[in-house]
Amino acid sequence: MDNLWYTSAHPAEWTYSGLEWFADHYKSNQAIIGIDVKNEPHGRCDNPGTAAKWDNSKDDNNWKNFVETAAARILAKNSNLLILVEGIECYNNNWGWWGGNLIPVKDYPINLGSGQKQLVYAPHEYGPSVSDQTWFHSGFSYDTLYSEHWRDSWMYIYEE
Q1: What is the average pLDDT across 122-137?
Q2: What is the rounded distance in angstroms from the CA atom of residue 100 to the CA atom of residue 64?
Q3: What does the pLDDT read at residue 58?
């Protein structure tokens, strides 16, 4: 799976257009309640040019900018849809699952303007069978997962 929502052969505009088409095509279908705008944006902190990043820039690989632009275009077609936003892999050298790291929301929350109530942060979380992570070591439990990973990665959004 590609790190980003675009490639040299598949420009971001195609992704925007596809999301708009989906929103418009299914606007009368009550079973469609939202759009996850990209599955698991990712990329390594040590290779920033090809990684999904999260800040206030207009850079092509800025996940926040892509989400806000995509959401505006989606909601213009169907204002009832929920906009599901996953995390990125790495932020300020804090690593997480593809789609699971929502640490940057603290510094750069998604702003959907009048569509803000449609925003759903949707972190991806996995178990140790997917990848051995430090938070699974030493007899992990709900409490250790919460304190060593979930709280800082995404649970703080709900709690604060």
Answers
A1: 86
A2: 14
A3: 97
- Looking only at Cα atoms, what is the longest distance across the chain? 50
> Are the beta carbons of 15 and 35 closer than 8 angstroms?
no
Q: Looking at the 3D structure of the chain, how many domains does it have?
A: 1
Tell me whether residue 2 is in a domain: no
Structural domain including 36 reads: 12-159
Asked if the model's pLDDT at residue 52 lies above 80, the reply is: yes
In the β-sheet with 34-36, what is the strand arrangement from edge to edge? 34-36, 82-85, 119-121
Q: Going by C-beta distance under 8 Å and a sequence separation of 6 or more, which residues neighbour residue 87?
A: 96, 97, 99, 100, 101, 102, 103, 104, 121, 123, 124, 153, 154
Neighbours of 71 (CB within 10 A): 24
| CATH code, 136 | 3.20.20.80
Is 115 domain-assigned? yes
* Mean pLDDT score of the chain: 94
Say if strands 34-36 and 90-91 run parallel, antiparallel, or are unpaired: unpaired
Condensed to tens digits (0 to 9), the pLDDT of residues 69-93 reads 999 999 999 999 999 999 999 999 9
Question: Who's near 155: CB < 8 A, 6+ residues apart?
Answer: 146
- 3-state DSSP call for residue 13? helix
Residue 138 scores a pLDDT above 80: no
